[in-house]
Amino acid sequence: MSRALRGWSSALLVLLLAATLVGCAGGARPTGAGQDWVTESDEPPQRKRARTRVELAAGYFEQGQYTVALDEVKQAIQIDPTYPAAFNLRGLIYTALRDSRLAEDSFQQALRLDPRDGDTWHNYGWMLCQEARYPASFDALRRALDTPGYRGVARTWLALGVCQARAGQRQDAERALLRAFELDPGNPITMYNLALLLHQRGDDERARFYARRLNNSELANAESLWLGVKIERRLGNREAAQQLGEQLRRRFPASREAGSYERGAFDE
Fold first, then answer.
1. Are residues 152 and 191 in the same domain?
2. 81 φ, ψ (degrees, to nearest 5)
3. Do 126 and 107 meet the contact criterion of CB atoms below 8 Å apart?
4. Three-class secondary structure of residue 30 per DSSP
5. Is 35 helix (H, G, I), strand (E, B) or coil?
6. How far is residue 102's CA from residue 173's CA, in Å, rounded to a whole number?
7. CA atoms within 13 A of residue 57's CA, in its CB half-sphere
8. By CB atoms within 10 Å of each CB, which of 2, 32, 145, 190 scores lowest?
9. Which residue range(s) make up the domain with 50?
10. Is residue 181 assigned to a domain?
11. Quick check: 225 and 248 in contact, CB under 8 A?
């Protein structure tokens, strides 16, 4: 589909980045029943130094400077080899560098250090999905969802739905994406994937609801407008399809989707 981050194919990578920023936050955590919470003031000096390196690495990762980020993470691990967030971020960096073996080793090490980290389970599951290792991916993503206090539930339901759709499990994918939409109805990636899935299943009346909701917002892009064109055409709404097509040509004239519209390639 699209090549830039504005496209929903590439925007799925934001799932990884969001998990990085959450996972590196180092929030408070209870130590057990009847015990006080562990906070930053309880951290030993080496953990604080390692956390600073990880935060720097996360910033470089966000900017796409993967090798610089990796160097910072390596230094964090040298300072504190028991810091799970460092291995979690290292896994994301290796995922971005397309080294699945080292990415998996990193996520597994992070989970050995902290098996209750929902963000690491999410990141690991998303990496497995990219490798088309779907059963293992589903298991890891569900482990994230089952983690007490996990704050990325909507993001993980979205990732699970996308992976299930890729695996051909469309009914399960629809249930997961609907759950993601229920939790975060303003997420454009969720709306796009729901509209796409329902359109592919031939349920264009329902697909139109999500496509219109997205295309009537400032978050519409070439992919969502092109999908809206195809949905409206299939429903026989030629005027609505033409209006969306004109938006596509005007706002994204250099996009592949605009080229497809110009050619009338509605069945591609």
1. no
2. -75, 5
3. no
4. strand
5. coil
6. 29
7. 31
8. 32
9. 1-26+40-156
10. no
11. yes
pLDDT tens for each residue of 74-109: 999 999 999 999 999 999 999 999 999 999 999 999
Return the number of other C-beta atoms located less than 10 Å from residue 116's C-beta.
Answer: 14
pLDDT(2) > 50: no
User: Of the candidates 196, 140, 132, 113, which has an alpha carbon nearest to the alpha carbon of residue 19?
Assistant: 140
The per-residue pLDDT for range 189-234, each reduced to its tens digit, is 999 999 999 999 999 999 999 999 999 999 999 999 999 999 999 9
Using alpha carbons only, give the angle 134, 137, 143 rounded to the nearest 5 degrees: 145
CATH, residue 105: 1.25.40.10
Which residue carries 């604080």 as its tokens? 48
Nearest CA to 148 out of 179, 117, 106, 193 is that of: 117
Of 187, 173, 177, whose CA–CA distance to 11 is shortest? 187
Which one-letter amino acid corresponds to residue 120? Answer: T
Cβ atoms within 10 Å, residue 244: 26
Q: Which helix (H) or strand (E) holds 37?
A: strand 37-38
- CA-CA-CA-CA torsion for 257, 263, 265, 266, nearest 10 degrees? 80
- Kindly list the distances between the CA atom of residue 176 and the CA atoms of 22, 51, 138, in Å, as whole numbers in the listed order: 22, 34, 11
Please provide the size of the chain in residues.
268
For residue 201, tell me if it sits in a domain: yes
Number of structural domains, the chain? Answer: 2
